[in-house]
Amino acid sequence: MANLNFVVHDLTPEDVSKGITDGRYLLVDVREPNEIAAEAFPDAVAVALSTFDLTAIPDPQGKQVVFACRSGKRSVSASLAAQASGLPYDKHLDGGILGWKAAGLPTRSGG
């Protein structure tokens, strides 16, 4: 199978938060619009996995793309799909927004 060559790197919520602040990471939330409407990451771009369109991800402009979801499963799928399409997006937020909140990091109301 081809995706045995793909690797997805787990990043902690603290790593991702610091990377966003430092301008190293572009966070891409692959949850559904209704999930994001309920609660969202403060600085994420929304690209739902159910209609996953890699062209909807903005140019990271030198930043590394990090995928995020609710618990960390869909973000791995997004990373694998991106890699299968030839993009070097091999990072995800381990634990998703649940882990983010457990680490005491802020969320915002979606919408």
UniProtKB/TrEMBL annotation:
Domain of life: Bacteria
InterPro entries: Rhodanese-like_dom, Rhodanese-like_dom_sf
Molecular function, one GO term: thiosulfate-cyanide sulfurtransferase activity
TM stretches of this protein: none
Pfam family, one: Rhodanese
Record-linked SMART domains: RHOD (SM00450)
Residue ranges constituting the Rhodanese domain according to the UniProt record: 21-109
Matches recorded under Gene3D superfamilies: Rhodanese-like domain (3.40.250.10)
Protein name in the entry: Rhodanese
Organism: Nitrobacter winogradskyi
Taxon lineage: Bacteria, Pseudomonadati, Pseudomonadota, Alphaproteobacteria, Hyphomicrobiales
